[in-house]
Amino acid sequence: MKILNDTPLAEKRIAILATDGFEQSELEEPMKALQEAGATVSIVSPKKGKIQGMRHAKKWR
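Given the sequence above, the corresponding structure tokens read:
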């Protein structure tokens, strides 16, 4: 992914706060958008070590 220096968040650092039970897409999609806008993104948690996300299966009618 090529980041241009004139993007809205170029050279900005953003922290995303997450903990166990986070929705996978609610973490990954904003993180990707921030990175594409030029930000350096870090995920932080109040818990040490790894955190466990969840994935919901969507039922189709």
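The chain has a mean pLDDT of 85. Try to locate this feature in the token string yourself.
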